[in-house]
Amino acid sequence: MLSSFWRVTPIACALVLGMATSGVAQNTQDHAYTAADVAAGSQLYATQCQLCHGQNGDGIAGIDLRRGQFRRVTSDSDIAGVLAKGIASGGMPSFNFQPAEVNGIIAYIRAGFDPSGTPIRVGDPVRGQALFEEKGRCLTCHRVNGRGIRTAPDLSDIGSQRTPAALQRSLVDPTGAMLPINRPVRVVTREGRTIRGRRLNEDTYTVQLIDDEERLVSFVKADLREYEIGKTSPMPPASKSLAPDEVSDVLAYLLSLKGL
Amino acid sequence: MHGRLGRSARLLIVPAVMAAVTYGVHAQVPYDRILRASAEPQNWLTYNGTYNSQRYSTLSQITPGNVATLESKWVLQNQVFGAWQSNPLVVDGMMYLTQRPNDVMAVDAKTGRMFWLYRYTPSPDAKVCCGANNRGVAVLGDTLFMGTLDGHLIAIDARSGRPIWNIEVGDVKQAYSITLSPLIVKDKVLVGVGGGEYGIRGFVAAYDPKTGKELWRFYTIPGPGEPGHDSWTGDSWKTGGASVWVTGSYDPALNLVYWGVGNPGPDWNPDQRKGDNLYSDSVVALDADTGQLKWHFQFTPNDGYDYDSTQVPVLVDADWKGTPSKLMLWANRNGYFYVLDRVTGKFLSGVPFVKVNWSSGLDANGRPIPTPQPAGSPTWPGNQGGTNWYPPSYSPRTGLFYFSAWQDYATVYRKETASYEAGRPFLGGGFTVLAPVPGAPTVGIGRRGPINNWTDEVGNGAVIAMDPQTGKPRWTMEQFDVTDAGMLTTATDLLFTGGREGYFTALDARTGKVLWRASLGGQIVMAPITFQVDGQQYVSVISGHTLVTFGLRP
Question: What is the DSSP letter of B553?
């Protein structure tokens, strides 16, 4: 009974998360988990899993536990099976966890590694979408499901990529919350042409970016006259144009974006 | 017509092929050849190339002048997922290497085609902290030796690829494992055990290559009544880790083997094991015949940062303050670069090569002055260290010591009380990599994918060319991502290395100038090797899931 009660849509889940600052239950694929499960799982994860899987769950190539990306498993019982048996070829050991411990680990993974119950208010996603597209003018830089501009990161699946707390930070303090990879760059080519854009990837010798005219460009650094990485986000804080309630609505909308 | 010609040509070639094969069959590797490995640079007979572990080759066909004409001669694809840390051996045109979890391959070093593949399936109880790694085999006579993830040592016939004997070195139920390549000394096969994150009691042991009988064992944690036992409180010595997971070095004149010893356990809670915790985070010098301890030097007493000292001991004969000396050079995971007297273990110098704040310096005996950071504050270098197990190189021509470093990389440690349970992680807390933004991607044990979304803001890699005489880098070649690559130097003053970005680079060993690079696409997490077959010098390197062998364009 409890289980079916919590089997709710992502939007309703976001609303629940917004209302409950403690005792948050998480909507998952197979089971319902309590905040206590998530907290216990967080502890266990740190001691048993983090060394290989990393603090963000993306320590192994092709796997991102926080975002629910796996190589071999889908359901919660699959995860439990891998914990019990391990994956010899991948170097994943087997664990003799108690059932409650298994529950905890899965709960923590399904909670997107965000067990804190941070008192973030999540508003109305429908109102949020309207604010995002109109008053906030977010599509003049961002893109969602094929609509909008590509100069800022595409947000089509941002709700499955970021935690509510991280999205809230990005809205109110874009520069402080900017992931380093997204920093704006300015290059001056050998011929003296200046190109501005957003960094997509970089290594010792090259950099890839999407420029202000939405072109994908790659440069060999040795060919550049100047290469500058900006520290300030081009995005104005949402609180500049939106009221606090409106920011909560936009947050709800962003959390509902789970990709196609 | 074409076919007939082919057949007759083949008939003509048969005697020559037979001759080559016959030569191959008699290519045994007695101890004497390993001892004099530097006299046959066409081969790569041990993990580190030679007993002094300099990873320096006297081959000279590839030079700064022609290195730009290197081309790929063959590629071997690994069929198994995961970081490929194997170090190939080359014996008279035959390459022996391993892949995960415990496969051994015999490959024609000229063409990359395989003669045989031996698959050992480790017990499902096998537990390793950091991936199903194996760093390669050792060879003696006509036998190969491989340590396994489930703590066994297996002797394998080098011609048939079939096992000869298989013995248990450590109990898999207690999470003993072997990931290193064994070290052959005289008539013994030496191995160390992994399991430092699982509360093992580490050791180095020697085995009879004919039978697998254990000949001696040195525990890296002294037992009751032994000197150093009082550096552990209570029963903490029983589960204190001090694993040995990287191949040691050997000085035949002194008859000493040198092994780097891993972290004490539980990793991050030193309060649970008060004292220096000997011989964790130390180098130990053992009598090669008996395993008796001659001296030790501890880099990080009572470590709470996972600063394994499992780096390769690099043995160098050079002047020290004007006197010809037998030295040991050591860039440690704890962020200091050390010079030791390898006869006595005496500390000669130690300087930080990256930012260090867990200690404010070293005293006259090389003991660190601890400056533990408050809870929640970052510690430099971070958990993966200023450097780690990646094999360094020393060139006697340049007098420089080359190694991979992680710069500006810090972690916040958290300690908790750990309770020991056999076969389960025994860590005593955890750590968080210091990131510019909460929740931002950070670096981990391996490269996380083709897009670097963590950036150099969480730390960056560098090749450091250290002048051991001054303790100052002669030059530094910075990389955007961190690097786990080892080093190879040659008599033509080339330095070959790589990094997580998958660039395989040849540098001028004197200046650090990049002379040539190839983008191989997968992380390079081992050192390149070089060898020669039929007059052609080759350089092999593993990148991602491929081993690429380069040679000069004809």
Answer: -
* Residue B524 · residue B546 · CB < 8 Å: no
Which residues have CB under 8 Å from B388's CB, separation 6+?
B308, B310, B311, B333, B484
pTM of the model: 0.86
pLDDT surpasses 60 at A96: yes
ipTM, interface predicted TM-score of the complex: 0.89
CB-based contact B133 A91, cutoff 8 Å: yes
- The residue behind tokens 């786990």 is B484
A178 within 8 A of A190, measured Cβ to Cβ: no
Nearest CA in chain A to B82: A90
**Distance, CA of B329 to CA of B142 (rounded, Å):** 33
Report whether B456 contacts B440 (CB < 8 A).
Answer: no
pLDDT tens, position by position, B194-226:
999 999 999 999 999 999 999 999 999 999 999
CB atoms < 10 A from the CB of A195, how many?
Answer: 17
In this structure, are residues B468 and B486 in contact, taking their beta carbons and an 8 Å threshold?
no
pLDDT in tens, A120-155: 677 889 999 999 999 999 999 999 999 999 999 999
* Interchain proximity B101–A88, CB inside 8 Å: yes
Give the C-alpha separation, B62 to B538, whole Å: 9
Give the type of residue at B231.
S
**Least Cα separation, residue B80 to chain A (angstroms):** 7
Alpha-helical runs (H) found in A21-98: 35-48, 50-53, 76-85
Catalytic, out of B267, B306, B481, B484: B306
> What distance in Å separates the CA atoms of residue A221 and residue B238, rounded to the nearest whole number?
53
Measured distance CA(B88)–CA(A254) in Å, rounded: 50
Rounded Cα gap, residues B490 and B402, in angstroms: 12
Q: Which of B100, B501, B517 sits opposite A89 (nearest CB)?
A: B100
Distance CA B153, CA A75 (A): 38
Burial class of A10 by CB neighbour count within 10 A (0 to 12, 13 to 18, 19+)? middle
Q: B134 near B86, Cβ under 8 Å?
A: yes
Q: In chain B, which residues have their Cβ closer than 8 Å to the Cβ of A202?
A: 452, 455, 480
Instruction: Please say whether the beta carbons of B186 and B195 come within 8 A.
Output: no
Is B493 among the residues known to form the active site? no
Amino acid at B434: L
Check B447 against A90: CB less than 8 A apart. no
Q: Is the CB of residue B315 less than 8 Å from the CB of residue B330?
A: no
The DSSP symbol for A225 reads E
Q: Using CB atoms, which residue from B125, B442, B453 is nearest to A181? A: B453
- Decide: helix, strand or coil at residue B265: coil
Residue of A nearest to B411 (CA): A55
Structure tokens at A241: 């144009």
Q: Is B375 exposed, middle or buried (0-12, 13-18, 19+ CB in 10 A)?
A: exposed
Per-residue tokens: A174: 């874009």
